[in-house]
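Apologies for my clumsy wording, but can you show me some protein sequence, whichever is easiest, together with the matching structure tokens, please?
=====
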Amino acid sequence: MEPASGLRLDHNHKLSLKEFPYIIRWRDDRCKRCGKCTAVCPVKAIEATVKVQRFVKSEGPVPTPSAVRNITHVVEQVTDMERYCTGCGTCTLVCPNEAIEPEFNPQNKFLHYKNKGGDGYKRGGRRNDPSLSTLDRLKFTRISMLTDPALDAGRHEFRVRTLLGRIMNPEDLPLKTNGSILEIDKTRNAFIPPVREIFPIMIGSMSIGALSPPMWEGLAMGVAYLNEVEGLPVVMCSGEGGMSPRLLRSRYLKYFIIQIASGYFGWDEIVRAIPHMVEDPAAIEIKYGQGAKPGDGGLLMAQKVLKLIAKIRGVPQFVDLASPPTHQTKYSIEEAVAKMIQSMSMAWGFRVPVYPKISGTKTARAVLNNLARNPYAAALCIDGEDGGTGAAYNVSMDKMGHPIASNLRECYLDLVKQGKQNELPLIAAGGIGKKGNLAANAAALIMLGASGVAIGKYIMQAAADCFGDEYNRCNLCNTGKCPRGITTQDPKLYRRLDSDKVAERVVEVFKAADVELRKIFAPMGRSTELPIGMSDGLSIDDPAMAERLGISYAC
């Protein structure tokens, strides 16, 4: 029985395309029905179908109207919310006649319908916030008018480097002078923390499993080339999930930071490899939180746990790999930080810097003050709210967390009050290069107090042309259906990615960042060291932001 309006009940509960975030614009006059677009769509949001069109026709010497039905082949967008168009545009790339493209629908009501089944909507990518971030509003306004000509950005010899590791005061070091020679004073039983000289922009934690094999391999090759050929000491964090046994036993391990998180995935292999390591890793990162989903643990969804990933992580195939929100063997963050740092330091004979990574929150200062008293803590990494993630609840990504600029600044000023600003390095992460301004964002954070920054989503976009953006475009990182082959374990998809080209782009990105950092720092008269905490060189056009960050207001 149909309602009086003529709308059937089953039609009444269907969604119109206006509810979807992207609407497919298909041109019948250009389409040649080759089928390429429907074949490559990662979510099957479009399908080839047959439609019957009815129109009125009048012919003959005495035209009499008659109904005629015509059968046509079309490409149609699916109105099933489980197969919604993500706007990735892969269909547009393969179409030979430019007959199809997705168009962003600002009137969409996507989130009203995506939480069916009683589970919150999970996605990858980065928060849906196209507005200009605080970092992109900062300007460098302290310019020296009397710098040496050698400090010209293109010619000066300033080596852009930073230190990863706790830096002791000179009077605390167990050193003595023997004439003009500096020697270690063996009579003083003092601990000398391990320190690494690195490039101040590092590749942040993205695991084997979160990234496809060609993507991870491309990043690793690029890092090795930068260190051994270009002389840029760039380091890369492994993310949670272990590393290739061959890499653990190779001399290239010194360019990698190994991450341990609450799931301990892959750490059986790492522990077994320690006696066979020919080089120490650059550092050990203990993950307690991610900026994009503070309070949550990690999650690698079952569809990405294929044979290679299961073998590296020591788990069965096709099961969800969820890390707990906290390290389950520890009672509190204070105990966890102290015991984990101690145990990881002992595992490598106190030769490797060990530091924790936490989410940007109001409690960051509490963790920092705990670390400041721990002589074995090498640094603190703070991950702000704009960081990307492989799988998180949408509500976490869009509504939880702390912006990195103000969180870093208050932590640095806390160290200044204790007189330890040159002792414990701070690493900032989360949304750096969100608008493409990698070097400018990194320099701004350094001048707010960071010793270095970590990037993830930026390098995915710059090196592998990731489709994702802040309009919920693509963001399929968690599903294993990445159309670029970046965050998938499906061989049919990751064969689209060329690891050699990824490595080439990684090298180009860091060489360009090195030049741009010198372009920013040289006119300020800095030629020997990074301007860490030199906030008098920064200005912003918002008085409230200027007051919050303790920098000058300029308009």
Summary: The first strand starts at residue 22 and ends at 26. The chain has a mean pLDDT of 90. Residues 135-157+197-524+533-553 form a domain with the TIM Barrel fold (CATH 3.20.20.70). The chain has two domains: 16-119, 135-157+197-524+533-553.
